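Case study: Enterobactin synthase component D.
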Amino acid sequence: MPQGSQHARACILRTDAKAFALNSYEHEGIQRPPNIDRAIPKRQAEFFFGRWGAGRALARIGLPTGPIPVGRTREPLWPRNVVGSITHSHGFAAAWVCRAEYAAGLGIDIERVPGTAELTALQNIALRPDEADMIDSLCADAKMTRPLLLTLLFSAKESFFKALSPTVKKYFDFQVARLVKIDATDRKLVLELKVELHPKFPAGYRGNLNYDLIEHDTVLTCLSLC
Ligand SMILES: CC(C)(COP(=O)(O)OP(=O)(O)OC[C@H]1O[C@@H](n2cnc3c(N)ncnc32)[C@H](O)[C@@H]1OP(=O)(O)O)[C@@H](O)C(=O)NCCC(=O)NCCS
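Here is what the predicted structure looks like once written out:
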């Protein structure tokens, strides 16, 4: 987890959508929004596991587990004075929370390296032209395959989005942030904003993320804002 986030607590789960039953919501006292009632079972399960993890993470910072509704841009609406973030992907779910007095925002994301077609799409969406040149040399420096590195960059940008989005309050795409460096020894990654998104996030603002491999093909990235 990032430096300066010693007050934040995470809950990372192994999940099995096939073992999930809809009555788990009632059983665990987790609110189910109407759109989740109508969703496919996989979505019902991932929403459940994300909220369940959030409840455990809130308990770890000494707060009661209450409802975490969904905001206008799909963001989780945390209790007052709490910042946090949720992710779920291919058998994992994670939630990360902190009292707002210690962090201005949190972002967490888990991604598994996709198949070839999806990887091409991911590259087209997430990679800036000026990052393409860096990627090959970074593969050697960071001791990562190109697919893993692209997945890491994609995940880092999604964590960046989740952390900034509650302040920026509008959608911004992957082109607004550029990879500056990866430190494979300490598993750190730096993204830099190329445009101003908000007075608190001017062009040149740098997000210092941490990352980890939670499986050989699955990355976790996270960002805590000071
Ligand atoms: C919102 C987004 C980041 C979610 O990431 P994802 O890999 O699709 O899915 P994950 O499982 O990791 O995360 C989903 C969770 O993100 C959270 N989330 C969704 N929208 C959010 C927002 N606007 N702000 C903060 N968190 C948000 C939710 O908790 C959601 O889970 P839930 O619906 O079960 O509550 C992604 O769908 C997206 O829209 N990305 C485009 C914007 C972007 O990343 N720009 C890059 C800027 S450099």
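For the exam, be able to explain this: The chain has a mean pLDDT of 95.
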